[in-house]
Amino acid sequence: MTLKVLVAYATKNWSTAEIARTITEVLRKEGLEADMRLVRDVHELQAYDAVILGSPLYEGRWHKDARQFVKRKSEALARRPVWLFSSGPLDPSASEGKIPPVASVRRALIRIHAKEHVTFGGCLSEDAQSWTARTLVKAGKGGDFRDFKQISAWAQRIGATLHGDIAVQPDGS
Ligand SMILES: Cc1cc2nc3c(=O)[nH]c(=O)nc-3n(C[C@H](O)[C@H](O)[C@H](O)COP(=O)(O)O)c2cc1C
User: Fold this and answer.
1) Which of 20, 76, 84, 112 has the least CB density, counted as fewest CB within 10 Å?
2) Which atom of ligand 1 is nearest to the CA of 122?
3) Where is the Flavodoxin-like domain (predicted)?
4) Which domain holds residue 52?
């Protein structure tokens, strides 16, 4: 049986979409079925054995679409293995050490019994949507701090865990 994984993500400026794409591609290479969807377009989880949910941080919180998804689907999420990721820091800190989840994500982690949370570095470029974002870039606070090696390694580990889950038979063999 091939396990089917949903990689759901929120985004404003699309850099988190590229993180989600990398995760999806790695899972497929690992022999899993993986769908990548904008979280606001996800209505049903029935078809999925596991979920990876990610969101950028804006002013210390996840994107609204991701927060609402967790509220809307908390029961269905709690019944599946779920991994969470945040993208945000515009400096190398996320590649250098583990950054804990912000308070609301920590609460979500507990509510849906998520297996793990990781914070990846973020990205902010000149073509960002909002005036505030572009002002930050002009002030030298932008850049691309996504570490695709780190992201791929994380996805590989999830793939291995999911393969392990199916390898374990009900009698524990
Ligand atoms: C107005 C604004 C507020 C931000 N707030 C945070 C924050 O609180 N914590 C953080 O780590 N990153 C913060 N960031 C960085 C974003 O999370 C980062 O640029 C992220 O990669 C954006 O993802 P997206 O391109 O998918 O929208 C902020 C960026 C902007 C423009």
Assistant:
1) 76
2) 21
3) 5-159
4) 4-167
